[in-house]
Amino acid sequence: MGAKHIFKLKNKIPAHSELMKPISEKLKKILKIVTINPPKIPVINNVDVKFENTSKNIKKALIRQIYNTVRWKEIIDFIKLKKIFVMLEIGPNKILTNLNKKDKNIISFSTNNLKNFLIAFKKINKGKNEKE
Q: Taking the model in full, what pTM does it have?
């Protein structure tokens, strides 16, 4: 059928694929009862590659990102265009932080536990204070 390579992915769930569409409906129900306040720092929608600043739009994006492809390269290009050079990865792993290691223009911190969160917070505040 035209495939050049076929290999098994080490993946526990089919994240970011159409197979997750039924799960997105469950998330939609959960998000109806969750309060998301307008963000004080930019939140980038990884489906549309744009800033979201309302609870409604953030929830819609979260639902759609479960079954859509993450546009990582476009997100990084968007971040650079907006002159954002510090990123916080919020989640249980360091996948995105590790992807960013190759790009010396972006400082990426994993906040996968309290210790890492506090380290990232201190470094961000230190950089902010140096600019002032």
A: 0.69
Cβ proximity of 52 and 65 under 8 Å: no
pLDDT at 21: 93
Q: What pLDDT, in 10s, does the model give residues 44-63?
A: 898 999 999 999 999 999 99
Contact 116, 109 (CB under 8 A): yes
- Distance (Å, rounded) from C-alpha 36 to C-alpha 29? 14
Structure tokens at 25: 């409906």
Spatial CA neighbour of 61 closest among 45, 73, 74, 75: 45
Assess contact for 51 and 44: CB atoms under 8 A: yes
Of 44, 96, 5, 12, the closest CA to residue 120 belongs to 96
Q: Long-range contacts of range 38-41, CB-CB < 8 Å, 24 or more positions apart?
A: none
Residue 81: enclosing H or E segment and its boundaries?
Answer: helix 72-81
- Give tens-digit pLDDT for 33-44: 999 998 887 788
